[in-house]
Amino acid sequence: MELNRTLVDEKKTPMLRVEELSVSYGQIHALEKVSIEVYPHEIVVLIGANGAGKTTLLSSILGVKAPTSGNVFFEGKKIDRVPVDRNVREGICLVPEGRGVFASMSVLDNLLLGAHHNLVNKDKNLARVYEWFPILKKRKDQVAKTLSGGERQMLAIARALMSAPKLIMVDEPSIGLAPIIVNDIFDILVMLNKEGYTVLLSEQNAFKALKCAHRGYVLETGTIALSGTSSLLLNDPGVKAAYLGA
Amino acid sequence: MQVFIAQILNGLSIGSVYVLLVTGFNLLLLVAMIIHFSYPQVVVFSMYIIWLVLKMTNNNLLLGILAGVSSAVLFNFISAPLFQKIMKNREEVDINATMVLSMAIGWIITDVLSHAFNNGLPIQFPEEITGSRPLFRIGLISILPGQVWALSIGIIVVSGFFILLYKTKAGRAFRAIAEDPAGARLVGIPLVKTGFQSYALSGVLGGLTAVLLAMLFHSASPGLGEQVSHKVLAVSIVAGLGNLTGGLVVGLALGILEALVQGYISGNWSNAIAFVVMLIVIMVKPKGLFGMKV
Ligand SMILES: Nc1ncnc2c1ncn2[C@@H]1O[C@H](COP(=O)(O)OP(=O)(O)O)[C@@H](O)[C@H]1O
Ligand SMILES: [Mg+2]
Asked: What is the mean pLDDT of the segment spanning B236-264?
């Protein structure tokens, strides 16, 4: 009986739980009582237009921006107001909007920065990352500013993987990339998900994102307007009209 | 030719002091995000500590050097929270506020040195640290052991610093913060802790520089720090604020320029000429010879 309960609980326990989170920049209320959940091994997408609050939500989860109210729980522990480097250590990472690679540093240095707190395992993690992204191995001594946009996005993802994360948050990876490259990037996210990583993705490119995600939330001016499985959202008339150009 | 070689050697040894000072200054600017232009005053303070400890221990060189380095590190750690507090209060790097704090620290040190040590008179370092006899003489020129030591230590410390910067975990974090502090925070680099590491490192650099200065100058006065700090600020701006490689080149160049002026024109004019040259450079290249890194 007791054992059964914990099993059931575990199944139902989200890896990440955001509870009525409000965040503001001075007078601007960027998020109003936003609640989302991400379960282990899911790909969840946040869909929203420019300025909807996607970046704010992801960076508040990571601990960059303190919320005005609400809670964030990661694996049951409350993590809002925990410093970013502690959250990274605990297994959350963010691939920032616009990649955020260190342009003047080598590819290898960028990767090792991702492993800053985890250098004992760096060889193992590097080998894995190079296996997934052979191009980065080839370019490991080049400075990051010589990479193409797609390669930079791969580097940013690979750098995040070097931190040995459980939850990877990826903020608008498709921005500024050619459609073919965007497909590659989404394929990589699906592959990583199959490898056991949990993914929280933010996108304006709703169609492709929903195609690879299990569930999604639609964020409109700081509040969750709609949520559900990907197929439900893909068939929702409102979503179709607003985000799928139908 | 003899004068030339001797002055180049002189220039390199004093230049390596400038390099160390500019490097420590740039490190604080890049990683801790403070403009600490009184950093050379802290170094002169350490010279006084070395002098005091040498006097108390009957010229135990090792203890003197140890005390010099630890005093600079300690001083940085004491002033660090003040700088951090200013930055916390304003929620962002505030160069103006950190400059005022740095200025205050500089004047406090100068005043303390003028009143609490040796009645404000210049201090003289003992032969144990400066070396007594010239190592060798060629004609009119004599090379002092202090110069050779200073140059060798300078080279070792500067190379050590660059190895640390490019080959170690802390160095990597320093470079990341220097390039993009917000991005560095996102990938999980602890900004406050790394900032403290840079205070510690600039303290070590400062303490070693104090030893070099004692070897080269044989004496110090309360006003020395201010004099040097003007030059260090000028070098870092001429090189390109925050540009470490630029600081290396321009620091050595300034040392050589000054030495050549002293050798061929007159020692009285070396400061003025050095500043005129730097003035011309900065008018031609307002962002510095090597470009700003901040
Ligand atoms: N640093 C900031 N200062 C002030 N307002 C901001 C800041 N960052 C974002 N905002 C505002 O917060 C809202 C949400 O922005 P953001 O989270 O960047 O949206 P998205 O990532 O979905 O485009 C917008 O109205 C934006 O103008
Ligand atoms: Mg955004």
From this structure: 91
ipTM of this complex: 0.89
Q: Does A49 touch chain B (CB under 8 A)?
A: no
Q: What pTM, to 2 d.p., does this model score?
A: 0.87
Least confident of A82-91, B132-141, B194-203: B132-141
Positive or negative: CA dihedral A229, A199, A96, A141: negative
Co-location of A154 and A177 in the same domain:
no
H/E segment holding residue A34: strand A28-38
Q: Do B188 and A93 touch (CB under 8 A)?
A: yes
- Taking an 8 Å cut-off on Cβ atoms, the answer to whether A113 and B173 are in contact is yes
Token pair 């620290």 is found at B105
Nearest to B118 by CA among B38, B257, B222, B261: B222
CA nearest to B169 within chain A:
A116
Burial class (CB in 10 A: 0-12, 13-18, 19+), A124: exposed
Task: Pick the residue whose CA is nearest to atom 18 on ligand 1.
Answer: A55
- Interatomic CA distance for residues A3 and A15, integer angstroms: 20
- Per-residue 3-state assignment (H helix, E strand, C coil) for A173-195: CCCCCCHHHHHHHHHHHHHHHHC
Look at B172 and A88 and tell me if their CB atoms are within 8 Å: no
The answer to the question of residue A20 being in a domain is yes
CATH code (residue A84): 3.40.50.300
With CB atoms and an 8 Å threshold, state whether A114 touches B188: yes
Q: Is A105 on the interface with B (CB under 8 A)?
A: yes
Across chain B, the runs of DSSP E, i.e. the strands, are: 123-124, 136-138, 141-143, 219-220
Report CA(A24)–ligand 1 centroid distance (Å). Answer: 9
Query: Best of A62, A79, A84 to disrupt the B interface by mutation (most B CBs within 10 Å)?
Result: A84
In a domain, A120, yes or no: yes
d(Cα A211, Cα A191) in Å, to the nearest integer?
A: 14
